[in-house]
Amino acid sequence: MVDDNGIKEELVDVYRQSGDPIKADQLSKEVINELNTNAQTAVANQNLGHYADRELAYAYLKIKDNDKALEHAMMEYNRRPNNIDVNETVAWVYFKKGDCTKALPYMETATRTNSKNPVLLCRAGLIYSKLGKKEKAKMVLKEGLEKNANISESLREAATKELNSLN
Fold this sequence. Notes:
The protein is mainly alpha-helical.
């Protein structure tokens, strides 16, 4: 059986952008229910080797349940504190909660390899900007937007708007 939660999460974004928040929220809740089922299975059978907490964090962000997103992001962080993707997730959840000071150390861990991932770069740039680190924010946002093949429209718009405000 193919896991189609990633496809469903992209469809949530499409529904939101097309002005159908009811469908977006319904589908988000369906994804969360499936991910919670998978998470419970992973806890019960640790031989599976995959937890769904990082995915759940992003799914909860889509419905603006930032507290549940943080709960799941931290569960994943407690399992893998040095993982770059997990640190990016925690940083992004704190950003969405409006706490860039808490987001910064996680984002610094996430960017320590100098990854050129456009999503990571744009998120880092938004955090740096909110903390008043304007030059670093401009540099990172510009680089992230130049490599924007895998970036969502909402993140592209936020990064572009922030970059323009810094110029």
